[in-house]
Amino acid sequence: MFPRLVLGLALASLGACARAPLPDADATNAAVKPRVVTQPVPHDSDDPAIWINRADPAKSLVIGTDKETAGGLYVFDLAGRIVAQTPVLKRPNNVDIITGFLLGGKPTDIAVTTEREMQRLRIFRLPDLEPLDQGDLVVFDGDKTRAPMGIALYCRPLDGAVYAIAGGKSGPADGYLWQYRLEDDGSGKIKMTKVRAFGRYSGKKEIEAIAVDAELGFIYYSDEQFGVHKYRADPDAADAAQELALFGTTGFASDLEGISIYPQPGGQGYVIVSNQQADTFRIFPRNGTPGQPNNHPLLASVRLSTLESDGSDVSNHELPGFPGGLFVAMSTDRTYHFYAWDDIAKAAKLK
Asked: Is domain 23-348 given the CATH code 3.40.640.10 in the classification?
């Protein structure tokens, strides 16, 4: 059963204080229209994650954060209706999902969010939102100046080990991200152990958006107003400490934000990064260029209908009403926009 809903939404405030987007000369299309706009969350939408119901794809869900002290995780069906929410969380920032986590010997789908004001991670079972932590998953040793924001999950194909990668409001020039192994604690809950600190930081603003390409084994993160960094996801890789690429350093109006990975067969596909203040998404090749897998030049930039989006997710699963897959992006009017991937690919003139 889903938790009881407590909505109390102030619909009249939506759309206030609109502003003209900053220019993006590479985005020449008319704004792509979403197939669905969700019900608004009460305070401040921020980051989504897509959960695929493998038994019945039509019942797949989108989990979104409401980033306020009285916020929480909100669950949307594919029609954009709020169907569930967690108890109140103190400023949940970003969220990610992983399937098949072994808990009590059973594959379990989980959503992990950063609870910023409590300096910790929270973990919930999907789709019923049963809490799976003891409230003690404190990150960055509880340092309040590094309040956790970004989160991404990685399952290592070699042995099924599951990791959480967290980024915060501030941090050092090297070792900004901390990576933790998530494991069954033997009591039906999940524990974590720090395995490394890694990742360069420009010092310009902050690092929030993190994405993992689990198939190819890479982590990407947005160093706002600087560029996208790329590292190995496996903390035991021989070159785990080496930055593999820095791209997206030009063409952004101001902040680089939400990152999504759209996979295609043979390592093909796209890395999509929000150009927040321009209301566009800039698209880079997932597999680099011939002979240079860590070279990620701009392929296209596409204008969507979201406002100042700083969180997104994408799935290549065919879902009802979303040919090519589902792309979800937050909008500052407290909603999330659901797009058909084929609509975006067409507007961006992707092959």
From this structure: no
